[in-house]
Amino acid sequence: MEPMLSVKNLTVKFPTDDGMVAALNGMDLTLNRGETVGLVGESGSGKSVTSQAIMGLFKESRAVIDGEITFEGTDLLALSEDAMRPYRGKKIGMIFQDPLSAMHPFYTVGAQIAEAYQVHNKVSKKAARQVAIDMLGRVGIPDPKRRVDNYPHEFSGGMRQRAMIAMALVCEPELLIADEPTTALDVTVQAQILDLISDLQAETNSAVIFVTHDLGVVAQLCKRVVVMYGGQCVEQASVRQIFQRPSHPYTRGLMASMPHLAGDTDRLTPIPGSPPALLALPKGCIFADRCEFAKIVPDGRCLNMRPELIVEDDHAVRCHGHELKLIDETSLIGAGS
Amino acid sequence: MSAPLLEVTNLTKHFPIKGSMGRTVGAVKAVDGVSFTLEKGTTLGLVGESGCGKSTTGKVLMRLLDPTSGSIKLDGEDITGLKGKQLDGFRRRVQMVFQNPASSLNPRQSIGAAIASPLVEQRIKVPGGIKAKVADLMDRVGLRPEHANRFPHEFSGGQRQRIGIARALALDPDVVICDEPVSALDVSVQAQVVNLLKDIQADTGVSYIFIAHDLAVVKHMADDVAVMYLGKIMEQANKRELFENPRHPYTRALLSAVPSVDLDAALTERIRLGGDLPSPSNPPSGCVFRTRCPAYELLDEAGKQRCSTEVPAGAMACHFPNAPLAATVGA
Ligand SMILES: Nc1ncnc2c1ncn2[C@@H]1O[C@H](COP(=O)(O)OP(=O)(O)OP(=O)(O)O)[C@@H](O)[C@H]1O
Ligand SMILES: Nc1ncnc2c1ncn2[C@@H]1O[C@H](COP(=O)(O)OP(=O)(O)OP(=O)(O)O)[C@@H](O)[C@H]1O
Ligand SMILES: [Mg+2]
Ligand SMILES: [Mg+2]
């Protein structure tokens, strides 16, 4: 079966005063109907740019885009801004990283949800208001009849995030992109929101791309994980594979640097070095200068040649060492225990 | 037995709420009766949800804010009422590392000058010269001393946090209050900074108050942990005790809310707190946690009555620590 969404070799560059910022450098991602995929990676690795590109938010910007974004058989990159509109908000919903900036402070929460609905559905104001009330109830806002007339600042952080989810889901999109929807929240509120997203997802069978840098959240919510580094997918696999047998050296590093609530480790193992400079990317593997395996791969290949994303069964890895079978699958670092 | 390095007793900090005509109409009870001790060379972790009073506690300990009541003793000496010169002397011994490394550094000041600033402000005579001291501090936190003339924007988030740590260490303090020092950092950078803080402690015997909302990081850093809710400490214990055998319903709820990376972990307890945090200007009577407590709903009338009227005290501030918990509470 064709995947619902397929992103292939996507590049996004931003012209800036200092030169071209290469935010995405051949990004790949596939998503099936009803599936929840976690998109993880360090700050600046291109998670939000990937989400924004799928939403078609760069159509009228100076960003230089190349590659392929196919959604249900349609090439989204080829669409004009006008042709994109029925997709944005209707077929593809998005929860933004910063709920305060995504909601207008001068309009009531209810009016904003109602408007999101009316953009794509021809209904009366009164009917749209009722939809907003129902939606607020569905995302667990107590007393929605009264709360519908509140302004965003009258909501707590957790309630605002719920309202954002209501706004993104009011048109029942087939794909929901949630960009770090819980990062700014306390764990207790985060737990409520994660429960809510799983429940709604089970109810509507929509597919979800969940952007986060919290691997615990991924383990709880997702079946599959896409790990990003330097604007590329470096590994894509089932949650179990990623947590128990990570292949890419970056994924392994991420696992080892994480403190665990279970077990006792005296020292964490950080990844040495710092993230790549997107203004001047190396010609070889983008992770090579931080990678302990680059030394054992012959011919200085890691420094001179970009590795391809090699797909085997449901597991994709972009690494010369892995491709040449030089990295021992069983030598496990971090991950649980 | 000698006095603990730091002893905090019944500390409160209330911020007055002014109505029209400048009259005080109420108070935000940001810190409301906090007590703990900190021994030399150890770390106390301070955790709890946003707004529970962690940073305010830190600022009062630093004497950046005056406490409303209670006492703070350093090496047995009460420093609660210190002023002027004596306060300066105290400040030398207690330093702070802030959450946001970017905003706590002046963008127009070289990082060498930033690290030297506590020495200059306190007019400290450094035997080998300030330059050498700064180079030594930079070396200690893993920064290259030849970068002393560079400016904050030339450094990454993790490096800026190292600059903040070097500055806090300039006066060889006894206590460093770390207010969410790694919350804004990626896990791999976070691991570097956490290791650095531990290494410094092993070298110098400095004590930390480590404020964070990430329980896994606190578990890694702290010897003892205090869990705060609405300005009060709910439970306070040795780290091992607290994480392996949490007793307060709030601690248990907090721990069960942390998403686990262990895919095969049995879902033992899954306690969801409903509702919102009450306002610290109008906290519930009796036990402040009762309105969200997963044990409260299942108590009989007499139990509920007790929770609504009596404030629980002690290191485990709960009237019914062994009561059964409801799985989910509230809306
Ligand atoms: N409009 C823009 N102009 C120039 N550079 C940009 C723009 N948007 C993003 N970038 C850059 O592209 C890179 C990827 O950014 P992106 O926001 O996708 O990161 P991210 O993975 O979402 O990080 P975070 O975890 O911090 O949200 C960053 O270096 C960012 O500075
Ligand atoms: N200067 C002030 N004036 C009035 N109220 C204040 C002031 N500083 C803090 N507060 C209030 O005191 C309470 C405790 O705030 P504090 O910053 O100590 O919380 P925190 O536990 O550090 O939270 P976070 O995790 O969000 O940093 C909050 O309700 C806050 O709004
Ligand atoms: Mg982002
Ligand atoms: Mg704080």
From TrEMBL, chain A:
<dbReference type="InterPro" id="IPR003439">
    <property type="entry name" value="ABC_transporter-like_ATP-bd"/>
</dbReference>
<keyword id="KW-0813">Transport</keyword>
<keyword id="KW-1003">Cell membrane</keyword>
<keyword id="KW-0472">Membrane</keyword>
<dbReference type="InterPro" id="IPR050388">
    <property type="entry name" value="ABC_Ni/Peptide_Import"/>
</dbReference>
<dbReference type="GO" id="GO:0005886">
    <property type="term" value="C:plasma membrane"/>
</dbReference>
<dbReference type="InterPro" id="IPR003593">
    <property type="entry name" value="AAA+_ATPase"/>
</dbReference>
<feature type="domain" description="ABC transporter">
    <location>
        <begin position="5"/>
        <end position="255"/>
    </location>
</feature>
<dbReference type="InterPro" id="IPR017871">
    <property type="entry name" value="ABC_transporter-like_CS"/>
</dbReference>
<dbReference type="InterPro" id="IPR013563">
    <property type="entry name" value="Oligopep_ABC_C"/>
</dbReference>
<keyword id="KW-0067">ATP-binding</keyword>
<dbReference type="Pfam" id="PF00005">
    <property type="entry name" value="ABC_tran"/>
</dbReference>
<comment type="similarity">
    <text>Belongs to the ABC transporter superfamily.</text>
</comment>
<dbReference type="GO" id="GO:0015833">
    <property type="term" value="P:peptide transport"/>
</dbReference>
<keyword id="KW-0547">Nucleotide-binding</keyword>
<dbReference type="InterPro" id="IPR027417">
    <property type="entry name" value="P-loop_NTPase"/>
</dbReference>
<dbReference type="Pfam" id="PF08352">
    <property type="entry name" value="oligo_HPY"/>
</dbReference>
<protein>
    <submittedName>
        <fullName>Dipeptide/oligopeptide/nickel ABC transporter ATP-binding protein</fullName>
    </submittedName>
</protein>
<dbReference type="GO" id="GO:0005524">
    <property type="term" value="F:ATP binding"/>
</dbReference>
<dbReference type="GO" id="GO:0016887">
    <property type="term" value="F:ATP hydrolysis activity"/>
</dbReference>
TrEMBL record, chain B:
<keyword id="KW-0547">Nucleotide-binding</keyword>
<dbReference type="GO" id="GO:0016887">
    <property type="term" value="F:ATP hydrolysis activity"/>
</dbReference>
<dbReference type="InterPro" id="IPR027417">
    <property type="entry name" value="P-loop_NTPase"/>
</dbReference>
<keyword id="KW-0813">Transport</keyword>
<dbReference type="GO" id="GO:0055085">
    <property type="term" value="P:transmembrane transport"/>
</dbReference>
<dbReference type="Pfam" id="PF08352">
    <property type="entry name" value="oligo_HPY"/>
</dbReference>
<protein>
    <submittedName>
        <fullName>Dipeptide/oligopeptide/nickel ABC transporter ATP-binding protein</fullName>
    </submittedName>
</protein>
<dbReference type="Pfam" id="PF00005">
    <property type="entry name" value="ABC_tran"/>
</dbReference>
<dbReference type="InterPro" id="IPR017871">
    <property type="entry name" value="ABC_transporter-like_CS"/>
</dbReference>
<keyword id="KW-0067">ATP-binding</keyword>
<dbReference type="InterPro" id="IPR013563">
    <property type="entry name" value="Oligopep_ABC_C"/>
</dbReference>
<feature type="domain" description="ABC transporter">
    <location>
        <begin position="6"/>
        <end position="255"/>
    </location>
</feature>
<dbReference type="InterPro" id="IPR003439">
    <property type="entry name" value="ABC_transporter-like_ATP-bd"/>
</dbReference>
<dbReference type="InterPro" id="IPR050319">
    <property type="entry name" value="ABC_transp_ATP-bind"/>
</dbReference>
<comment type="similarity">
    <text>Belongs to the ABC transporter superfamily.</text>
</comment>
<dbReference type="InterPro" id="IPR003593">
    <property type="entry name" value="AAA+_ATPase"/>
</dbReference>
<dbReference type="GO" id="GO:0005524">
    <property type="term" value="F:ATP binding"/>
</dbReference>
<dbReference type="GO" id="GO:0015833">
    <property type="term" value="P:peptide transport"/>
</dbReference>
